[in-house]
Design brief:
The structure is a single chain. By secondary structure, the chain is an alpha+beta fold. The chain has two domains: 84 residues, Pseudouridine synthase (2-Layer Sandwich), CATH 3.30.2350.10; 145 residues, Pseudouridine synthase, CATH 3.30.2350. It is built from four helices and ten strands. It starts with 16 loop residues before the first strand and ends in an 11-residue tail after the last strand.
Length: 243
């Protein structure tokens, strides 16, 4: 049977958009190619923090305009924003909570080099390298404040009979970040397992064809669950459930 054709995203610089609102917080869909906050080195890319301040002036009174967490430049999807200073602190505390309290559930979609077990988990330590290094070091032992845990399940196994730069040649994986998140936890974690993310050249991932995501790591913040309210960000085109 002939494989259906996936259509790549056409708009290269969409704006953030609200996908869910509550009285004291809301969730944005962050596009690829946006920093969450200003980067150390100016690269010309827009920031969600500035966009929030310009679009919703009341947010300017809050730290980082109310952003509760951050996503990498290359990561799209759910970004949680508080409307008040008190809720900002409450959500930040719970976003980085351990295994007690009402820690916020965080699920991602990723394209990983094919061959993963259908379900799995890793608990590893993620430590910064020398100052200015873009990568993190992954090890099995380290300080508890460096430990990050992920569980995954494969939603669609990668196909071996198509071009290696096609999204369908990778495993489409749902990844849950359990407890506190660490910098590059999903990207570096899967890289250390020998299954780096598509397009993630930093961790030796195979490049995707440029029409898909301009060689960014294929990672999407898919779902957040806050006090029982589940918010979902639309899947990017590379994460469509097709063969």
């Amino acid at each position: 049977m002939k494989e259906p054709t996936l259509q790549p995203d056409k708009d290269r610089q969409p704006l953030p958009a609200i996908v869910h609102e509550e009285s004291e917080w809301f969730v944005l869909n962050k596009p690829v190619g946006w920093h969450s906050v200003a980067a150390r080195v100016t690269d010309g890319a827009p920031t969600v923090e500035q966009w929030l301040g310009e679009s919703f002036p009341a947010q300017g009174a809050l730290t980082e305009c109310g952003l509760v967490h951050r996503l990498d430049l290359s990561t799209s999807g759910c970004l949680l924003v508080a409307r008040t200073a008190q809720m900002h602190q409450t959500l930040r505390d719970n976003f980085s909570a351990g295994f007690g309290g009402w820690s916020i559930e965080k699920k991602y979609l990723a394209l990983a080099t094919r061959g993963l077990q259908s379900r799995g988990e890793f608990s590893l330590c993620f430590a910064g390298r020398h100052k200015g290094s873009a990568k993190v070091t992954v090890s099995e032992v380290g300080h508890r404040n460096e430990r990050g845990t992920c569980r995954w399940c494969v939603l669609r196994a990668g196909a071996g009979n198509i071009d290696s730069t096609d999204p369908r040649s990778f495993d489409l994986v749902e990844v849950e970040v359990v407890g506190p998140g660490r910098r590059h936890q999903i990207r570096a974690g899967f890289g250390s397992l020998g299954h780096p993310l598509a397009g993630d050249s930093l961790y030796r991932g195979t490049e995707l064809a440029t029409e898909w995501n301009e060689n960014f790591a294929a990672l999407h913040s898919w779902k957040l669950t806050i006090t029982g309210i589940q918010v979902e960000s639309p899947r990017p085109s590379w994460a469509q459930q097709t063969r």
